Amino acid sequence: MQDDNGLGRGLIVGFLTGTIVGSVIALLYAPKSGSELRRELREKGEDFFEDAENVIEEAKGKANELINDGKKKSEKLVADAKVKVDALLKEAEKILKEAKEKTSTYLDTGKSKVEEESEKLKSAIKAGVDTYKSAKEKA
Fold first, then answer.
1. Distance of CA 121 to CAs 45, 86, 114, 127, 132, Å?
2. Residue 27 · residue 41 · CB < 8 Å
3. How far is residue 136's CA from residue 139's CA, in Å, rounded to a whole number?
4. Alpha-carbon distance 30 to 24, whole Å?
5. Does pTM top 0.70 for this prediction?
6. CA-CA distance, 7 to 17, in Å (whole number)?
7. What is the residue-averaged pLDDT of the chain?
8. Are 27 and 37 in contact, with CB atoms under 8 Å apart?
């Protein structure tokens, strides 16, 4: 896009320069009096400045359009990015919640098993101690 602007700008500058040079050469070689020549040079100069002002105004308008288009595109990109980030955050929160629930379940299950095994171990130790005491009393 920038290459297109550079090419267009070059064409406009070349056209204006060619117009000026051609007009000046035509006026200088035309058989006219000095006052007529000066008047025509002044008119051509005014025409040139008017054309240049029109080109500048047109360039300003196009520049504003490009800026506005760029702003709209960047706003759309930012809005799209926000939507995607929100979706990712919701997914991450869901995964974290599921992980917490699973961890809590595993922890509760593990705690129950440890308590069961602890009770079995206590019973086995008590039975061993009781057997030892009764064997000692018999001997």
1. 110, 52, 10, 10, 16
2. yes
3. 5
4. 10
5. no
6. 15
7. 84
8. yes
Long-range contact pairs involving 6-13 (C-beta distance under 8 Å, separation at least 24) = 9/59, 12/55
Tens-place pLDDT, residues 15-74:
778 887 787 777 677 666 777 777 877 888 888 888 888 888 888 888 899 899 999 999
Question: CA 52, CA 13: separation in Å to the nearest integer?
Answer: 9
Whole-angstrom distance, CA of residue 98 vs CA of residue 91? 11
| Burial of 133 per CB tally in 10 Å (0-12, 13-18, 19+) | exposed
The model's pLDDT over 85-120, given as tens digits with 9 standing for 90+, comes to: 999 999 999 999 999 998 888 888 888 898 888 888
At which residue do the structure tokens 């699973």 appear?
A: 102
Tokens 């995607």, located at residue = 84
